[in-house]
Amino acid sequence: MSDKRRVVLKLSGEAFADPETGYGISPSTVDRVAKDIVAAHNEGHEIAIVVGGGNIFRGLSSAAAGMDRSNADYMGMLATVINALAIRDGIERAGSECRVQTAISIQQVAEPYIRLRAIRHLEKGRIVVLAGGTGNPFFTTDTTAALRAAEIGADAVLKATKVEGVYSADPEEDPNAELLRDVSYMEVISKRLRVMDSTAITMCMDNALPIRVFSMMGEGNIGAAIRGDDVGTFVH
């Protein structure tokens, strides 16, 4: 067994979506992701999960289409709460205790985010799902993952995506794009590599938080990343 780790796992909306449409919530997809998380949790690792909401609502693209950016971002925060309740249900059915905390107050369905309470849940062996972003518009859920990881003293930020890791260019646009296995924070910023937004990268760099970017599609990849295995791209 690998050493016990405390990690923040960033799950995009794609971790919940129907594989064919990319939208909505697929119970089978949620169950698969939840079982991977619980398997790693059962080895003693402390896991906090930050969820996105793009499978339900994309705030930034809606703002680009003319909607007020703050309003669009708040709608996106509410979408992350829906995903958080879905993954909590999957985790609890897979056999682990789980708590949802939100940065916006929805007391009927989740606890408010309180840093020390989140840490206490982790220490008691519960998985914690963090929803509602930072509670502020203009910040992405990538930045939320970096912020929460720094706050709770995590060992790493793990970003589960639909691609294998970080590429030298967009693999959907450039067939010669190369998968990078090891890259520095400054390379990510200077080369504008698509890892996380610049605010999240800078926050991780300032707090010496390594980032692991990997595909959530591969069987067992989520558990491997939580354990600290060499999957995807390591940003440090």
Can you describe this structure?
There is one protein chain. By secondary structure, the chain is of the alpha/beta class. The chain has one domain: Carbamate kinase. It contains eight helices and eleven strands. The chain has helices at residues 27-41, 59-64, 69-93, 115-123, 141-152, 185-190, 198-206, 221-227, and strands at residues 6-11, 46-51, 98-102, 111-112, 127-131, 156-161, 166-167, 179-180, 182-183, 211-215, 233-235. It has a nine-stranded mixed beta sheet, sandwiched between helices. Strands 7-8 form a two-stranded antiparallel ribbon. Helix 1 links the parallel strand 1 (6-11) and strand 2. Helix 1 packs across helix 3 and helix 1 packs parallel to helix 8 (221-227). The protein is globular. The chain starts with 5 loop residues before the first strand and ends with a strand. The mean pLDDT is 91.
Q: Give the assembly state of these chains.
A: single chain
Shape: globular
Share in helix: 25-40%
Give the CATH topology.
Carbamate kinase
Figure out the total of helices: 8
- DSSP strand content: 15-25%
State the name of the first-level CATH class.
Alpha Beta
Class per helix and strand makeup: alpha/beta
- Order of the strands making up the biggest sheet: 4-3-5-2-1-6-10-11-9
**Average pLDDT taken over every residue:** 91
**Unreliable stretches:** none
What Rg do the Cα atoms give? 17 Å
- Count the E strands: 11
* Cα end-to-end separation: 24 Å
CATH-scheme architecture: 3-Layer(aba) Sandwich
Q: Return the string of H and E elements.
A: EHEHHEEHEHEEEEHHEHE
The CATH superfamily appears as Acetylglutamate kinase-like
How can the largest sheet be summarized?
9 strands, mixed
Taken together, the total number of domains comes to 1
